[in-house]
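Morning run. Coffee first, then this:
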Amino acid sequence: MTHSDDEVLVERRGAVGSLVLNRPHAMNAITRSMILRIAEALDEWEHDDIVSTVLLTGAGERGLCAGGDIVGMYHDALAGGDGTRKFWRDEYQLNARIARYPKPYVAFMDGVVLGGGIGVSAHASARIVTERTRFGMPEVGIGFAPDVGGSWLLSRAPGELGTHLAMTGRMGSGADAIALGFADYYVHGDWLPALATALETTPAAEAIAAVAMPAPASALESQRSWIDTCYAGDDAATIVGRLQDSSVAAARETASTILTKSPTGVSVALEAVRRARQLGSLEEALDQDWRVSTRFLDGTELIEGIRAQVIDKDRMPRWSPASLSEVSRADIEAYFALGEAGELGLSARQEESAS
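And here it is:
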């Protein structure tokens, strides 16, 4: 039984375990209670012989999920609470759980899919985008860096496309999502209801193959020549300098975009992607995300970014440090050190379960 006021509608329909993110008034922004409800359903369905496929969708017309509930994070931080840390701990554990779920986990990445929405969909075994998809990791705009395993996905995109998205916070299309490795299948949005119905009686791979179509060309991929050249290296200020000096107008416009974001967020996002390239598993990347995220929570950038973007909405964040040149190497490395919150420990647990 489901109730329309539930934040996640959980229902078994035929062979499908259906999860519907149900906060359309907030573009289905994810709360901790939603994370816990999804995890509970996954635990139940893993051992349910009737359920062969899990399907994640979003209520409303705007998209799957616009990210985590940052308004709640803001008020929790001001009150000195630990709700955000608990939220991230549960969320990152769920992200890893989705990636290793033993049954097909199908995500309809239709409409807007940002931040935490990426975490519950882009680690799925079957990721479906449409002509309406707009995906991204916009964290640098609120004084933060990509989390929920986003650095893992961004680091494995072709060339420097992932670095470009991480440092700008820009969104891409469904075609871009497939080209960058965030999605697997392109389906016309009007066919999603029929696909959801087909999954109730048909194996996931077969049902998806019946409606999947070739994706259009990726606009982002077509810009790789200047992106790969400009984003080489590990220093954010140097990258922005190359963009500013480029003969390509889009590159110069991109430099202006990056300079409006949190200098700390941009610098840490670049470092996170570079470090994630050297990691061996999603769990290791999520452990890194935990260190970075909790360090941001101990500072001022994240709270100031949320204030400027969604609380006061003045769009005039007072970043500190105020420029990329003022963010030192020591500042950046501090975000990757073990902090007071301790380790998340996902990679250690995964190694234990594999042994």
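Residues 8-339 form a domain with the 2-enoyl-CoA Hydratase; Chain A, domain 1 fold (CATH 3.90.226.10). Good start to the day.
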